[in-house]
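Structure tokens please, single chain.
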Amino acid sequence: MFVVGKTDIGKVRKENQDKVHVKLIDDDAALAVVCDGMGGMELGGVAGEIAANAVFDRLSISYRPEMENNSIRNLLITSVSAANSIIYRKSVDEDKVDQMGTTCVGAIVRKNTAYVASVGDSRAYIIDDDGIRQITNDHNVAQMLMREGKLDVQAAMKHKFGNMVTRALGIEESVDVDYFEEELKPHSVVLICTDGLSSFCTDEIMFSYIYRKPLETAAAELISYVNSHGGRDNVTVTLISN
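Here you go.
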């Protein structure tokens, strides 16, 4: 098993509000947490750092190799929910409500299974011999309008407020956490990224850089690709191979 996580400020932003933690737990398991502080918010970077640290610490301390699938599910959901509570309480205490928000993807990859919890529009993908597929759902205006049948894909991509996040950590006292459990083929790669990558790379480009490539090189070259095409956002790439 191999894991790599890289983040870059990009070419335009003055602060990197993306936060990432990755770790090999043992020979058969790895964990990763990726957060994207909401860029229009004054304290997005603070929220991202709080969430990334809180989720990573709780997963690192509480995970046990003998855990059943349902226990891992509960651990991921409660870890992300706890991070939401920490950020929300801080925002209330400092009178900064609506100014502290972040996306979050927390994942444990163990042997041939990926366990993923998600809030916001940072994404998790699986890359294998069948291609690339997105695991997570985007919590943003574009996806909401498509689910409601109000826009097709092309119209959603052009929508003025399409990238506006509709669900994030720290905005409300409680948050609904999406959970996904996916079986992996041998030599699969789990990609976790912020929208600084997914908004500027097609699935085909991401697949071409990652499939059967050294992961350290793939992560660095994906970031270079985004920056060479404007680097308009912070970009974070985490890759886990089983």
